[in-house]
Amino acid sequence: MASAKKVAPKTKSQVLAAIAEKAGISKKQAKEAIEALLSIAYVGAKDKKGFTIPGLGKLIKVQRKARMGRNPATGAAIKIPARTVAKFRLAKAAKEAVLK
Q1: Residues 19, 9 contacting (CB under 8 angstroms)
Q2: What's the pLDDT tens digit per position in 1-16?
Q3: SS3 of 62, please?
Q4: What are the φ/ψ torsions at residue 44 (nearest 5 degrees)?
Q5: Where are the beta strands (DSSP E) in the chain?
Q6: How far is residue 45 from each of residues 8, 36, 80, 91, 92, measured CA to CA in Å?
Q7: N or C: which end of the chain has fewer CB within 10 A?
Q8: Whole-model pTM?
Q9: Order of strands across the sheet with 57-64?
């Protein structure tokens, strides 16, 4: 007999409900906690060291160099300008937990 797997939350409301249930708090408190974490993460990511969520990963701001690329439709060479992007680097513990 196959065991029933619990489906991972996919929408914001499902994530908030799962957090509220696991933590034993209300959905409103879970929403406030997530919004606080996000606002701290956005400010922290602008710092040189980035923002780390222990056991999950690190949100950082990275400067990409200008480079040459190709237009996939025409095959013509194009210059891609330098730009700043946000990156999320997964922590080793999270990689191991996900890949098991």
Answers
A1: no
A2: 444 456 677 898 999 9
A3: strand
A4: -65, -35
A5: 51-53, 57-64, 67-70, 77-80, 83-90
A6: 27, 14, 24, 16, 19
A7: N
A8: 0.70
A9: 51-53, 57-64, 83-90
